[in-house]
């Protein structure tokens, strides 16, 4: 076998070639910070099932419907931070479009206003939407649920009402369009990979926008 010829080092003082950087497929996963009651605004109040110390504010990459990378913000439970960061990093890399991502205090903690604006949001200390049922805390009140693209992925109540009303144009779930949740979509796969459940499988009142730690 012929001898291996060692690579010739560059002359002393010559610049060493540096490989060109490889472009990132998505914006870097962004930061995590604590939140105060003042920062949470009307989305939190004494008596909520978790305190501000159990929540974190995330700055997350997302791909807009305008075809441009953006940074959005979600408040989530501290135990859900790693999972949520993983989900949205994968969605940005896949160029899955998200309309906007603002914390719910921008809407005065009004879930109706947020979903009507097609806003993706997480923590909000509120009761679950359960017409005719006993009051109980929503998973959003724990920071363990996220509603994604609510117009493209509406909640269909058991009485037939569609929330938000503009979501009526997306009730045909077999017509797969950008931003929609469905089995095998980048959205469902990203949440499924971290073990979160999807409200779109609920019988009688599917909540296509809703993903949560426990599937509720």
Give the SSE map:
Elements: E1 32-34, H1 37-40, E2 55-64, E3 69-77, H2 81-93, E4 97-98, H3 111-116, E5 145-147, E6 155-156, E7 162-163, H4 186-193, E8 197-198, E9 210-212
Parallel strand pairs: 2-4
Antiparallel strand pairs: 1-2, 2-3, 5-9, 6-7, 8-9
Structural account:
The chain is globular and about 40 Å long. It is built from four helices and nine strands; from the N terminus they run βαββαβαβββαββ. It is of the alpha+beta class. The longest helix is centred in the middle third of the chain and has 13 residues, at 81-93. It has helices at residues 37-40, 81-93, 111-116, 186-193, and strands spanning 32-34, 55-64, 69-77, 97-98, 145-147, 155-156, 162-163, 197-198, 210-212. It has one domain (32-212).
Features:
single chain, 216 residues, alpha+beta, four-stranded mixed β-sheet, 9 strands, disordered N terminus
Unreliable residue runs:
1-30
From the structure provided, what is the oligomeric state, counting identical versus distinct chains?
A: single chain
Tally of alpha and pi helices: 4
**How many β-strand runs?**
9
Structural class: alpha+beta
Percent of residues in helices comes to 10-25%
Q: State the order of secondary-structure elements, H for helix, E for strand.
A: EHEEHEHEEEHEE
Quote the distance from N terminus to C terminus: 66 Å
Mean pLDDT across the residues is: 88
Tell me the fraction of residues in β-strands, as a range.
15-25%
Main β-sheet: number of strands, strand sense, barrel status? 4 strands, mixed
Rg is 22 Å
Query: Could you say which overall geometry the principal axes of the C-alpha atoms support?
Result: globular
The overall number of domains is: 1
